[in-house]
Amino acid sequence: MVRLRGGAAAAAVVLFVVGAGVSGCKKETTGSAGPQGTAAGGAALTAVDSLTVKGRAPKTGYSRARFGTAWADTDSNKCDTRDDILKRDLKNVKFTGGTCKVVSGALEPDPYSGKEVTYKRGRSLVDIDHLVALSDAWQKGAKYWDASKRIALANDPLNLLSVDASTNRSKGDGDTATWLPPNKGYRCAYVAAQVAVKKKYGLWVTGGEKAAMKKVLSECPGQKLPSGGNPTQAPKRFTAN
């Protein structure tokens, strides 16, 4: 699965079974850029109650292609979405052939693991994570959207984050009830970002997911809700299967 820092706006994770381990979140956020770098949109804990609660729908019909071609340039800046997020999140960024294609940089530190990770193009040490996994979104409302909205979600910086690949790939399509970053200092920011994305796009949450979100955010009630990112409809020139 693939799935925001820096002075730009921001938004996108490793599998961790959440039970008693949901707690332990600190008010501070430790890690590379991300959703906490965007404009504050109020308290994330309060926003949880605005989310619709429903059961998870079947995964039937899901495929990555339903969300369009990966890393489409939906903001029309002539750089693909993956390079936009790498440029925003990495430090010591170097490019080739201009200022789009990132060839190297570093996560100092990676938000999910807390460790430093070096990025070199062609090596799979850094993933761009969808904070709200596309499969999870599909089962909680996106199945019923038009293609334009699904493409927008898949490429919205609010829902994207550069992270350690080995940590990220254990996440699967987990939500807050089934996965949290091992780096406890980043959990509040991570959950706040998921709340922000689900609120922005009108995605629902399960009862267990809502309870897990509130449990994490109750330990950091001052955590702000990220905002910003791209419009919720992609330009008409983009299509999806």
UniProtKB/TrEMBL annotation:
Record-linked PROSITE patterns: PROKAR_LIPOPROTEIN
Ranges for region Disordered: 220-241
InterPro entries found in the cross-reference section: GmrSD_C (IPR011089)
Organism: Streptomyces mirabilis
PANTHER family reported for this sequence: AMP-DEPENDENT SYNTHETASE_LIGASE DOMAIN-CONTAINING PROTEIN-RELATED, SECRETED PROTEIN
Identification of the protein by name: GmrSD restriction endonucleases C-terminal domain-containing protein
Domain spans labelled GmrSD restriction endonucleases C-terminal: 80-215
Domain of life of the organism encoding this protein: Bacteria
